[in-house]
Amino acid sequence: MIVTQQGLYLIILFDILLIIGFFMGYFVPGARKIPKKGKKLENEEIEKLKRKMDVDAEIYVVPAKNIRINAFQIGAKGKYIVILQPLFEKLSNEQLLAIVAHELAHIKLRHVLKALLVFNIIFAIGINAFLFPIPDIAIGIITALAFPLAITLNILLKRKFDYDADRYAAKYVGAEAMISALKGIEAAIYPQFLIEKGKGNPFIKKRIRAIENGR
Amino acid sequence: MGFLDNTKGGFAEEMLVISLVTIVLVGLFIYYDDIAHHYPGHSVVQDAIIGSTLVFFLTFLFVRMARMAIVYRNRKVIYAIGAFLTMISLGGIGALYMTPDLDTTIFVSALWALTIITFLIGKMAKRFKRFKVDIPPERYAVLRSVMTKRQRFTLIFPDRYIKYLETGDEKYLKEGEKN
Questions:
Q1: Does the beta-carbon distance from B136 to A191 stay under 8 Å?
Q2: Based on the domain organization, do B41 and B57 belong to the same domain?
Q3: pLDDT per residue over A180-194, tens digit each?
Q4: Using a CB-CB distance cutoff of 8 angstroms, which residues of chain B are in contact with residue A66?
Q5: Based on the structure, what is the number of domains in chain A?
Q6: Is there a contact between A41 and A61 (Cβ–Cβ < 8 Å)?
Q7: In whole numbers, what is the pLDDT of chain B averaged over residues?
């Protein structure tokens, strides 16, 4: 396809927006405001874990209004780890340490950067397909599929990253602590009678199996 | 009971809306491309097949999201519809830039109007009783583990599940509990 000058400007504009989006996703402007709403979590065990894993991050326990059972990293190179208060209250110290190790593993293995790169590269291919010397139908297919493909791959990658982070964290806190933490999260979300019936979270079950099998 | 709710009637209404919108849009598409303008190299049959597949998929996506917002009492889904519409509308600006004629201007303006209306509906939804309660995401995760695949696909399920979402009371998840 021959791209007109107007079309070329449009592609350049979308590319610039994509690059801005990438940096926003990586650095997350305003990230420091979220953890500052909570209390910094500092204790000897966590400091020791951070040194052992060679990851520098500040850990905060933040009160939660709606989403309650969650922990995540935020900011460039995962500078902050946020543990939401309700989750913090429901876990034992050992389980909490495993959750922190899991989040530190995400930072160490640079998972946010990898996920953003994959998403942006696929999206960029979709936008820039008009510049390739290929038939129009191929351009149409690539452009139409780029966004759903990028989203699907992102979801699958995040799942893979969770398995990787579990395995990596288990090296430092032990497989049993990691499994116990995952069970703790499941128990914090699901009613006991559903867990007993085997109707808990299927992804958590898979993660536990993966740790048990050493995958 | 209401429009597009969690009953068999709601599912039937959903299918009816999807079919009607698809037929109308594909009809307009064929009229515009093949009858009114006679673009060379276009076949009516080919346009009908490609057009109906694409339009059906998009219509299904939007109507399903609207029904999910209603049955799951989640106004955030309305914002997700708005986000999808924003992306399509941004593409519309691109189309307007490439083909700045009256037809495209009307089409893109309509798209933007629809996007803004969707966001306004999302913003105002909290005033309606149906969307008054902010439901924590964990309850959806729990409900998902209780629902069968058929219930998740058709969105036909007992009212007690909605009561669980609104109250968080586990008794509504147990079979045999009256609505």
A1: no
A2: yes
A3: 999 999 998 999 999
A4: 134, 136-137
A5: 1
A6: yes
A7: 86
In a domain, A155, yes or no: yes
B145 touches chain A (CB under 8 A): yes
> Could you tell me if A197 lies within 8 Å of chain B, comparing CB atoms?
no
Q: How many domains does chain B have?
A: 3
Which tokens is B5 given?
């709710």
Tokens of B149: 């695949």
Residues B103 and B140 in one domain: no
Output the CA torsion A17→A20→A25→A26 (10° steps).
Answer: 150
CB contact, 8 Å: A4 with chain B? yes
**Judgement on whether residues B118 and B144 belong to the same structural domain of the protein:** no
Does A82 map to a domain? no
Let me know if residue A112 belongs to a domain: yes
CA B67 vs CA B6, B55, B128: distances in Å: 8, 18, 16
Kindly tell me if the per-residue pLDDT of A73 is higher than 80: yes
Residue B166, both tokens: 């609104």
For residues B80 and B122, membership in a common domain is answered with: yes
Range of the domain at B147: 135-179
A178 inside domain = yes
CA-CA distances (angstroms) from residue B117 to B76, B79, B91, B114, B165? 15, 11, 18, 5, 27
Residues of chain B with C-beta less than 8 angstroms from the C-beta of A72: none
Percent of chain B with pLDDT over 90: 45
Q: Report whether pLDDT(B143) > 80.
A: yes
B104/B159 Cα distance (integer angstroms): 45
Q: pLDDT tens for residues A3-60?
A: 778 788 888 988 999 999 999 988 888 777 877 788 999 889 999 999 999 998 999 9
Look-up of token digits 């610039």? A16
Cα distance between residue B55 and residue B1, in whole Å: 29
Closest CA to A42 of A86, A76, A83, A74: A83
- Mean pLDDT over A82-87 rounds to 91
Identify whether residues B51 and B110 lie together within a single domain. Answer: no
Q: Look over chain A and give the mean of its residue pLDDT values, rounded to a whole number.
A: 88
Our measurement of the distance from residue A164's CA atom to the centroid of its chain's CA atoms, rounded to an integer in Å, reads 11
Is the pLDDT at B166 greater than 60? The verdict is yes
- pLDDT computed for residue A209 by the predictor: 94
Q: Kindly state the tokens that stand for A104.
A: 């530190």
| Structural domain of A198 | 5-27+92-212
Q: Would you call B97 and A6 a contact, using CB atoms and an 8 Å cutoff? A: yes
